[in-house]
Every structure is written in C-alpha cells, then in structure tokens.
Design goal:
By secondary structure, the chain is mainly α. Helix content is about 70%, strand content about 0%. It has a two-stranded antiparallel sheet.
Length: about 190
C-alpha cells in the first residue's frame, strides 16, 4: 500500500540463547530503557515527517484549487473548498507547534514520554485527515497515481503505525496522566 521502496520481512529465531554478557548495556533493564528512549525519539521524528507530508498535501491542494476549474468556476472559489483548505492549514500549523514542543521537551530531558507520544498521535492523525481533504479537493484526480496526493495519501497511513500505533500512544498518554495524578495524591 505505502512505503513501496522499503521492504520488510519476518525474521524467526528458534532455540537461540543470549548470554547475559551479550545483553544491551549488560542488563535487561538497560536494554529496555534504550529501546524506550529510541522509540520516544522516533515518535518525534515520525510526528515531524507527518507535518512535512501534511504541508506538501496542503501545498498541492492550494495549487490545485487555485489553478483548476469545474464548470468554468475555479475550484477554490466555493466556500466548502476554502473550508477544507482552512482545516488543512490549521492542522499543519498546530502539528508544527506540537512537534517543536515535543522536540524541545525531549532534548531538554523534561519529557521523553508523553510529549513525544502526544506529538506522534496528533500529527499522524492530522496528516491522515489532511490527506483525506486533499483527495476531496482534487476530486477524481486525487485518486490517480500520476498525482502526488495519491502517493502521499498511502504513505501517511503507515505513519499511524510506526513507533507504536495511535492506540498505543493513547495508552501511553492516558496511563501517564493517571499515574501522575495518583502520585500527586500520595
């Protein structure tokens, strides 16, 4: 469906034993922490990729709406099309701000869990919505392989899966909020 240039495959290990000396960091907890840190950083990256993809979709939508006509009327003139463009723009702007905040929180070490998860959740869901709107603005043309919107539409769907699905991000965020509240009342 998407990521046509990135092939994946299953790898199976049977009867493999890893000695303690070969564990990442020399202990189970260290390896787990390294994996979680890598996932959190990756969530910020995926969120940024989603914003960039959504920006491209917005650019394509605005250009198409301004340059093409339907029944002699520019596609961008009807208010419903303008509303779609406004929703795309608003999502991109909000996503960009959220990515910056998450990157700052991650880099400073103040939040390497909730902020990256929130940015990844919002930005990837937003990119999916912006892609839907881009196809709507383009009409039947938006579904054609010759148009960048079609490819980006397929690509952004996968962003909701990388580095943990949207549902996993919700569990991370919600669980962290509840744990923080419980800790505050101890």
């Amino acid at each position: 469906m998407g990521q046509e240039g990135a092939w994946t495959a299953d790898v199976h290990f049977d009867s493999v034993r890893v000695p303690g000396s070969a564990l990442v960091g020399g202990a189970e907890e260290v390896g787990y922490q390294a994996a979680m840190t890598s996932l959190a950083r990756g969530r910020v990256h995926i969120a940024a990729l989603a914003v960039g993809s959504a920006q491209r979709l917005l650019d394509e939508s605005v250009a198409y709406a301004a340059a093409n006509t339907q029944g002699g009327v520019p596609i961008g003139d009807p208010q419903l099309v303008q509303a779609m463009l406004a929703d795309q723009y608003t999502g991109v702007a909000a996503g960009r701000a959220l990515v910056r905040d998450a990157a700052t929180a991650y880099d400073s070490g103040t939040d390497r869990r909730v902020a990256p998860a929130a940015a990844k959740l919002f930005c990837t869901e937003m990119a999916g919505h912006v892609a839907d709107l881009a196809v709507q603005v383009h009409g039947g043309t938006g579904y054609m392989r010759e148009v960048p919107v079609e490819r980006i539409y397929r690509e952004v769907r996968l962003l909701r899966i990388y580095e943990g699905t949207s549902e996993i991000q919700r569990l991370i965020i919600g669980g962290s909020l509840v744990r923080s509240q419980k800790a505050a009342h101890r």
